[in-house]
Amino acid sequence: MSSLFPALADGPRERVALRFGERSSTYGELAGAAGALARRLGGTGRVAVWATPELETAVAVTGALLAGAAAVPLNPRSGEKELAHILADSAPALVLAAPGAALPPVFAGLPRLDVDASAAGPLPEEHAADGDPALIVYTSGTTGPPKGAVLPRRALATTLDALADAWQWTGDDVLVHGLPLFHVHGLVLGVLGPLRRGGSVRHLGRFGPEGVTRELNDGATMLFGVPTMYHRLAEALPDDPALAAALGRARLLVSGSAALPVHDHERILAATGRRVIERYGMTETLMNTSVRADGEARAGTVGVPLPGVELRLVEEDGTELAARDGESVGEIQVRGANLFTEYLNRPDATAAAFTEDGWFRTGDMAVRERDGYVRIVGRKATDLIKSGGYKIGAGEIENALLEHPGVREAAVTGEPDADLGERIVAWIVPADPGAPPTTEELAGHVARRLAPHKRPRVVRLLDALPRNDMGKIMKRALADV
């Protein structure tokens, strides 16, 4: 196949490719460092990468891909039990890490290779095929030990080229973000994406409004973030005119990894004149849909299928849902070259994830508008509530609750009810803990905005919602609260 990173060989050698804080690497320097590492990894099948948010991680993954090896990015905040499972399951030949990085005892016995970001060596010839593994990314493991999704090289190229089409992404773009590098969002989109285009990425290290303002004022054109980050920006905007002006200069503001509440969309638009666009993907599928740069940025939707992605909604019995009425709920299934090939060492889980004709069962529930826009209403396992004969998505109720001035954060789940089947439960972090909104007040608020059958029957107050590293609410943990 053609190179994943043609700019390493053919791009302007003096253009900055990567910047992490005060440290940076031009395309010429990255080609030398990644090329030198690739030659040391020649013939290695699989390598673990201690994915700290620094320059060496980007060099490590780039070098592994140039060598034709499969990289296994590891979350440095994972516990030893999870790390032990991933290492045993993926069986890497060695671990790549930044010099001086302290690795947990679970790595004892596994060879370590420190990544030299200043090394110089020629680029190797790339012989890997389209279907060869590029990354093995472990899922969050909410229903058991994490599973390793094997992402082939064609999936990376397909997704990044489709996003270039949808977002009009070119080598002139400078991306800024503060996302972790052990996940698809921060690593594939946030690092490999700019490198494939021949553009630049500036990683903030620690995300904050000050860093966003600084980089957008210094020529950055795109910002990637998760809803928690955009919520922090929305909260800061009323008292920070410099941030509002900087966001207003961005060419593209992109949110992903979870739904961005409509309330935050509206606050950012009002303060900056810029709309945040959303996209939808998974570890197993990379990116499936997006609002296009030349399309309508409609709050609460994830746009239309990307080029090369087939998408359908299906009923519980597997029949395709033909309605595009913005109301009929079905499970999203996708098919295309962007998909993973298997769960490593889990043929049973791989077979269960696909239909007989090759559609991947995402487990995400959505509706489609008349013009094809997709609006996700939640996960099948945790966000689809069957109450009083209705199928209700938790996401739209959460958005409605967040429009109430007394609500700072909201999550919605279902719990068994003898009469309704399931009743709707709202988990609320109040804006003023001393004067939280009542159940009756919130039920009426939702009923007026959506429909009476979508109102919460129970309200439970919390100091904070449980979230994972990507800012997603961990709804299964609410049962233990």
UniProtKB/TrEMBL annotation:
The family database entries (Pfam families) matched by this protein are listed as: AMP-binding, AMP-binding_C
This chain's protein is named Acyl-CoA synthetase
Record Gene3D superfamilies: 3.30.300.30, N-terminal domain of ligase-like
Q: Which residues form the AMP-dependent synthetase/ligase domain?
A: 10-344
Q: State the organism of origin.
A: Streptomyces sp. 900105245
Q: Which family does it belong to?
A: Belongs to the ATP-dependent AMP-binding enzyme family.
User: Could you tell me which NCBIfam families the record lists for this protein?
Assistant: PRK07787.1
Please state every residue range assigned to the domain named AMP-binding enzyme C-terminal. Answer: 396-472
Which InterPro entries did the record assign? AMP-bd_C, AMP-bd_C_sf, AMP-binding_CS, AMP-dep_synth/lig_dom, ANL_N_sf
Q: What PROSITE patterns does the database record attribute to this sequence? A: AMP_BINDING
